[in-house]
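ok so for the tutorial part 2 we go from a plain amino acid sequence to predicted structure tokens. step 1 is just haveing the sequence, like this:
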Amino acid sequence: MTSPPAPSLDRHPCTVLDHRIEMAVGRSIEKLWRHRDDGLLDAPHAALADAHRDLVRAERDVTFHRTRLARLVSGEFPVDQALFARIERTVDQLAHAIDERDAQQAKAAAALEPIEAAAPRQAPRQVPTKDFAALLAIAQGAKLHENLVTHRLAVATPSRTRISYAQLQRLQANGLVDRDTSHPVHAGQPVTLTDAGRAVLAAPRPAGPPGTTPSPRTAASPAPAHRRR
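step 2 — the prediction. this is what the tokens look like for a chain of 229 residues:
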């Protein structure tokens, strides 16, 4: 049987630890791997890079066997006893791949923990007022839904705050929110705040929108009362 390809530096399947690793080491996964190959990492970071590579390899195996199983049950092949045997064999291989992925994920998480503990605490970032309002709404509970007729994606919140799919993607790309893709989008994918998103809400807000300064009239002392005629 064909074996899944080895992990590539330029393209690899995402893992549940990618964002945590990038936040802890202060660089992208690709740079972490490249620095490992160039011998630029200390022992803890090198161990983390190696553990993450093993996790990526295991994640790729899961994807490989899952895709193979989907093809077998897609209707492409005639339904006979030989097909049943192939499906059963692939299910067993997928189960083993999942067990191996979970084991490698635990090893990578263990290698990550001391690096996270030693990482300097960064001040929470400032976000635009519109994004801050979106984070507040998501903190109360939110789900991404797909309209079955129009196929348009929208985020539903108890406060009815308007959050476009593009805004959700931006918040997710910035590491402020996450969504549970294990749920089908037509049924609603839960959207939650990450630790970084909660830190943004907990941080003190400036008097005005981020990146602005008070106007001269606001900053000046109160105007004197009108003089009597």
